[in-house]
Amino acid sequence: MSVRINTNAAAINTHRHVVNNARVQARNLEKLSSGHKVNRGVDGPAHIQIGEQIRSQTASLKQAIDNSESTISLMQTGEAALDEVSRALIQARAIATHAANSGTNSEYMFQADQLEIDNIINEVNTIAANTQYGKNFLLDGSRAGNGVTTGEHLEFLEGTNKGKSSGLGGHEVKITQAGVRSQVVGSVQLTQSMIDEGEQITITEGGRTVNFKTQEGLNVEQTLNELGLAIKSAGLDVDLLKPEGSSDAEDVDGALPQFINIRHKNYGSEHQFQVATNTAGLLSAQGDVPDWIQNGLDVEGEIAGEEATGRGQVLTGDLGAGVAEDIQVRYTGEKAPEGGVAGTVTFMQNSLQFQIGHNENHRTSISFKSVKAATLGRGVENTSGFKNIDEISVMDGDKAKDAMQVIDKAIEEIASTRGNMGAFQKNTLESNLNFLRIAHENALSSESVVRDADMAAEMAAYTRNQIVMESSIAMLAQANQRPLSMLKLLG
């Protein structure tokens, strides 16, 4: 065996093992102290890439959960305000019902009822103007689709979060069929002889029926007035119109024969009524055989070149359509305009947008309709001419009855809005929130598999490396002692 003192190969080899063992032990200590088996790229290049992606996803999911919870809080704020509006409208309905009982009311009671109605309207407007979440006002109409129309008979109603902004030029509105009310005009005139014989006229609408029998001695004009009063008292949504046409006979004290003309108050195919008369042709085609009068028509047309759905006088952009989805306009003309173009609707989308997912496209939106008094209860046909609840009056019994119809429409609108908000919260937000929480749990679990250290295994490895390290240091000491044996040869 050759012996060399200039190069201690055994010591060099042992030193290399000591250095390697020290490096391994240092990584063991890092894993044990951090709890992660991958702390840097060198620990696992593939694992570090996957781990960072999962970490990003986990953080985004957690923020999406927070976003969804904040959005639910916003919806709850709006719901609470709408509940108060609904309560106020129900109170207004009760007051209008009281005022309609005109037989027991005095002038002062009408005034007191009107004062209370005015206070309720102010309360509704206050809620609409001041309900907010953060800096976002929810019920004043600023967070909905807003629009204006051109055209004499065209009126913008609303647009949901699905509608697209139109730009300055607006969406062109074409009308091919105007809304029509169900109507019947007798082919046989009401004569004095029919009246004296006791003609039976029956009209049914909306579950309410008028059974009217003519009275001997009353002339034609008086009989028609009595029929009109009976229809009004029964609350039927039909009008007895001014008779069309007359016989060539001379009018003697209101005895001139007249055609009976009855028309539904509301436009559209869904509004119908039933008539029956003893005399064939007076209203019903056959004597004592009821006829359903269902010749009303819904408006038909297009918005922005897209076919729209008509209901009564209201034209709505079809579900799944392009830019005009859910945009609503009302056409009040009696016939379609020449050329079909009724005007334009310029629409601006101002709905609230929410990021409720970890992906950039996982977004949703909702429009908050205005609940200002001037926007509630619109479109109700009434003799008082009330266009919305802001205009209602209960200063006499007839006005109170019309006010009840307008308030009923407003209550229905608020209930519909609350229903839509509730559906959005339950089916979109809360359902999505549950999904996000499950996804977040799964992402955390995946991240743990990729990044977290097995502490028991790492501790076992550390103990083993510590023993090996101490052993290698001891052997390095022994290797360093080998050249000393040469001193014995020199002695």
Structural descriptors:
Immunoglobulin-like, 491 residues, alpha+beta, four-stranded antiparallel beta sheet, f41 fragment of flagellin, N-terminal domain, 8 helices, 19 strands
In a nutshell, what does this entry contain?
This protein is α+β, with helices and mostly antiparallel strands. The protein has helices at 9-34, 45-100, 107-130, 192-197, 220-234, 397-451, 455-481, 486-490, and strands spanning 132-133, 136-137, 146-150, 154-159, 171-177, 181-185, 200-205, 208-213, 238-240, 261-267, 273-277, 291-293, 300-303, 306-311, 314-317, 327-331, 341-348, 352-355, 363-366. An eight-stranded antiparallel beta sheet has the order 3-17-5-13-14-15-16-4, with no helix packed on it. Strands 8-7-11-12 form a four-stranded antiparallel beta sheet, with helices on one face.
What does this entry look like structurally?
This protein is an alpha+beta fold. It contains 8 helices and 19 strands. Strand 13 and strand 14 form a beta hairpin. The longest helix has 56 residues. It starts with 8 loop residues before the first helix and ends with a helix.
What's the number of extended β-strand segments? Answer: 19
What strand line-up does the widest sheet have?
3-17-5-13-14-15-16-4
Strand content: 15-25%
Sequence of secondary-structure elements: HHHEEEEEEHEEHEEEEEEEEEEEHHH
Q: What is the CATH architecture annotation of the largest domain?
A: Up-down Bundle
Largest sheet: 8 strands, antiparallel
Classified in CATH, the superfamily of the largest domain is f41 fragment of flagellin, N-terminal domain
The low-confidence parts are: 245-250
Taking all residues together, what is the mean pLDDT? 87
* Class from helix and strand fractions: alpha+beta
Spatial separation of the terminal alpha carbons:
20 Å
Identify the CATH class of the largest domain: Mainly Alpha
Total number of helices: 8
* Fraction of helical residues: 40-55%
Total separate domains: 3
Overall geometry: rod-shaped
And the CATH topology of the largest domain?
f41 fragment of flagellin, N-terminal domain
What would you report as the Rg, rounded to the nearest angstrom? 41 Å
